[in-house]
Amino acid sequence: MTLTLQLFLIVSAALFCIGLLAALSRRHAIFILIGIEMMLAAANLNFIAFWRFSPEPHEPTGVMIAIFAIAIAAAEAAVGLALVISVYRHYRTTNVDQLDQLKG
Amino acid sequence: MNSVAFIVIAILTLAAALAAATLQKLMHAALSFAVTFVGIAAFFFLLGAEFVGLVQVFVYIGAVAVLIVFTILLTRRDVEKDRGFNWSGVVVAIAVFGGLIWAIFKTQSVSVTAPAIPVLTVKRIGEVLMTNYVWPLQCVGLLLTAALIGALILVMEEKG
Amino acid sequence: MSWLITNLWLIPAVPLALSLVILSLAKSRRKSAAALAIIGQVIALAFAIFVFLPTLQTPGFRAVQNFTWFSFGEHALRIGWLLDPLAAPMMMMIALVGLCIFIFSVGYMADDNNFTRFFAYLSFFSGAMLGVVIANSLLLLFIFWELVGLASYLLIGFWIERPSAAAAARKAFITTRIGDMGFFLGILWLYHNSGTLLFYDEGHGCLESAGLAMLGATATFIALLIFFGAAGKSGQFPLHVWLPDAMEGPTPVSALIHAATMVAAGVFLVARVYPLFSLGAINGATPSLTVVVWIGVTTALMAALIAIAQADIKRVLAYSTVSQLGLMMVSLGVGGVAAGIMHLLAHGFFKALLFLGAGSVIHGCRGEQDIRKMGGLRRLMPVTFLTYAIGMMALSGVPLFFSGGWTKEEILHAAAHWPKSHVPYYLALAGVILTAIYMTRQIIYVFFDNRRAGSLHAHESPRVMTMPLIVLALCAIFFSAVLTPAWPWLHGYLAGERVYFEISRLIQPTLFVSLGLVGAGVGLGVWMYRKAGMQDRDRAPETDPLEYAQPALFRFLENKMWLDEFYDRTVIAFATMCARVSDWMDRQVWDGLVRALGNLGQVFGIFTTGVDERGINAGVDETTAGTRGLGRLMSAAHSGQIQTYLGVAAIGMLVLLLFYAWLG
User: Fold this and answer.
1) What CATH code is assigned to B1-78?
2) What tens digit of pLDDT does each residue of B94-130 get?
3) Where are the domains of chain B?
4) Domain boundaries, chain A
5) Based on the number of CB atoms within 10 Å of its own CB, is C651 exposed (0-12), middle (13-18) or buried (19 or more)?
6) Is C647's CB within 8 Å of A32's CB?
7) Among C643, C654, C661, whose Cβ lies nearest the Cβ of B96?
8) Which of C243, C483, C640, C646 has the fewest CB atoms within 10 Å of its CB?
9) Looking at beta carbons, which residues of chain A come within 8 Å of C640?
10) How distant is the alpha carbon of residue C127 from its chain centre?
11) Which residues of B touch C651 (CB under 8 A)?
């Protein structure tokens, strides 16, 4: 079968939703981070796919976006993990259900 | 492009992602998470963005996944497993998936086939990075610095 | 002396200014006060003589000095000074009589505590009176008129610790005020009709033909209104009631104000605005002049009758003044303007003389004023007696040497020739006889017969008091020189005619008539009162012979014909009732209105408070409660669970996506 853009988009959408699933339904704080990273990766895939199927591929715009997004995702993962460790130290738990200090 | 390769990589990626999202044991989940990224890197190769794929392998698998493993190690108590599953999250995810699929199929313009493109060289990426995208490059550099310092401050042991 | 004529205002200004200076002196500076007042008077007299001399040159001399006082819009109020044969001799008389009285007061008021205040008021009065005389504008005259009234009030009530003096001063002021009301209405009406209040203004004055023509028939009413004011000031019936009570003031005050000058102001006013009265005269009479005559003659006769029954030495003289003023009004009314003014001038001299003589008697008898308690002062106070006798003869009208005789002669002459009626003439004759009778009575009581209680330790007054008496007596005599028919110089001067000396005119039939009348009067008086003050058959010494003979008549006359009581029952009662009505209105109606408004404000305030508390406050409270409830509701959505937040964000993103996809 011929590969159309749609197929790639479907795959990235599925990946995105799985990442959302991971972020929403697990109780450990790490899984939220895992979910976010997955969502970011899915978005990167989306960009690259669009770049590949675009009418002017000599402009590597999609590629650049993906590169920068990877860099930013890495920074965000580092900070997030530092937060998780810090919270763990303070509250002795990683269960997000118990982290409801913002409850209004 | 080879459609067989596409289907294999897709199945691999999605299965690993699903496993990462649902496995009980934390370590297993973390390792499946790394496999997911391998699959995504393969996708990048398939799409002709080799450089990005390699960057993905270095950064995500080499740094982020390892970070996550270390964090699991550092925040472990007696409990290795993660109990509790929120089913409302599943509902939301499925709803979002449905919406996205509907949007994709509705749009006519994305039913295209891959045109022939010149090979994207690293040289080209380097050129573009240093001319058109030099400012974002510098900003990302700053961002990384800030993130580094911030993370350090966050996890520093408080004296006294 | 033309600069003085153009600056006539200096003549009243000097005494007025000096009065202010004297007011600022301390009570102990008596000599300075008296000296300043007398110097002021001397200067005024000198100025008066200086301006009198030029008026002799031309008959009918008139010098006018007008200027604008202030202007409002297109109109301007002009006032001015006037020097004419009417004003010049009046000024001299006022200054000279004033000077004599001032000197007399130095002796009379020597024991009084408020010596300096007295001289300040005297000087003030003198200035104001001089101002009345030289005013060329009816408004300016009115201003000085009121100042004279004020001075009179201050001087009548000079002994402020006496309630009777205060009451008398108030009565004088209020009665003259009633007259002044009419005067002011007359002024307003005159201004409205003729547009000017100046008397003489190069043909545009209100007394000149152009101004009079504008008045037409209203001149009569205006003249009557002005006469009302003059009647108040000159004590004509029915406004005469204040004059006898005014004797509460010190005797020099009575002499200056209520004999010589202030009461003369009314007569002077009528003479001044005579063209108003005589406008449109038919046969020498107009309605206004007729009114003047009848009121004058009524006053003259009534006052003379009352004088016969009075026991206070000053009251006799007061009623005599009222009577003489009535006579002067009669003279003006029948057309004898010059005669009336001549009698005014002569009366000024001899009435002041009589009052000062009475003052000397009172001073000598140590404050006794009842003539029934005096007697036999002829030998104890010879100078006073002599001068008093001269004054009495002048007043009674003894002709030849005494000025009063000639002037009264002229008046009777004019009255006899009044075309309207001869009744005033006969009544005036009766008045002459009565005058002689009551003056004889007074002299007999005071100076003749035995000494009674008051005069036992009497002594002659000091020289400072007797000198003015002598001066005035001499004036009374020598003034007659210009009054005789042989050389009627004053008449000619006042009327603007040329006269010449002719001795043959001295002996006239009228001369004998008046001699006869006066002789009859004096003789009658002597016969009636020859035993006054002494026991006679079964009449007690204190009882008046007339009282013994006709007690009812005497009682009627003694009580001033019950006029004061009549006024009390009618006018005063009416005024009191009006006051009570006003008070009621003020307290119930106006005050009630104000209170109602206040209550209304209070009701409004209560209403506003209610609205504020129940409406606005409650509204605000409800709003805040609602906001709080809403906040509570909304805070329930903040569970603090990050997964919830993320889920909601995902759902939101989905909704947005669908929305955009659906929009296409």
Assistant:
1) 1.20.120.1200
2) 999 999 998 888 877 766 667 777 788 888 889 888 9
3) 1-78, 119-160
4) 28-95
5) middle
6) no
7) C654
8) C640
9) 99-104
10) 14
11) 92, 95-96
